[in-house]
């Protein structure tokens, strides 16, 4: 994604495969390609496929149609989950001799086309904080507002470095107080809800540092249905990271998560020993059983869980 603008100056490719965990980046990358193609007649030269109308044969047939009144024709295949091995072979065969006037774009959010090599890759994984800081500052300036450095950092943290969430929050922040040109950290705290995963990350950090007060505060934000599953998954990943010699990408595939999540959690592993993580995982199974059997209310069980981890 970071280099796509430069690559587009050199020309368009016949096929782009976008993958990653930040959907807003898919949309931005697609718009960059769409603008570069300069379609004057999109009704004739822009075709979309999704789960409802997808078949690889139909996609390839659409690619073989000549554009009408434009230099290019764009074919978008958007987040199709069921792509067979035969579909991949059909795609690879087409890409060996693609139509020079067609631009085929895949939103491969589910990672189904990782084995397809002869296409241009666009990495749509979350940006780092430096990149996001620059983007947020630029977006705010375009909207005629200002934002403090502390507010930018808080917004990025609250949104879990997700450009998708950041964009959805910006309009709300910009139009909250039209009289005040400055967006402050206190406004972020008031208007933006932290992602559950962000709070769980903070909770885990507090537990690893034996910071009981902070852990209880995080727990208060998380007391709702289904949260035990998120906490369990988080510690389960920590445990596997601690005992595995696999690379981040391989481990991400094994655990069915994005590589970004593994990289972020690897920094937390140092707060726990392997034995501690094993005991915590057993404790999570015990608490889950107590909730499901009715032996303990979820609110009480979660408090018991957090206090128990503090003393493991």
**C-alpha Rg, in Å?**
23 Å
Element order: H for helix, E for strand:
HEHHEHEHEEHEHHEHHHHHHHH
The chain-level structural class is alpha/beta
| Order of strands across the main sheet | 2-3-4-1-5
Distance between the termini: 43 Å
Largest sheet: 5 strands, parallel
From the spread of the alpha carbons, the general shape counts as globular
Determine the strand fraction and express it as a percent band. Answer: 5-15%
Mean of the pLDDT scores?
88
List segments where confidence is low: pLDDT < 50 over at least 5 consecutive residues.
Answer: none
Could you list some keywords that capture this structure?
312 residues, alpha/beta, five-stranded parallel β-sheet, two-stranded parallel ribbon, 16 helices, globular
Blueprint of the fold:
Blueprint: H1 4-10, E1 15-19, H2 23-37, H3 42-45, E2 46-49, H4 56-64, E3 73-78, H5 85-95, E4 102-107, E5 120-123, H6 129-142, E6 146-147, H7 149-158, H8 163-174, E7 182-183, H9 185-191, H10 196-208, H11 212-222, H12 227-243, H13 248-255, H14 259-269, H15 274-293, H16 298-310
Parallel strand pairs: 1-4, 1-5, 2-3, 3-4, 6-7
Helix pairs in contact: 1-2, 6-7, 6-8, 7-9, 10-11, 10-12, 11-16, 12-14, 12-15, 13-14, 15-16
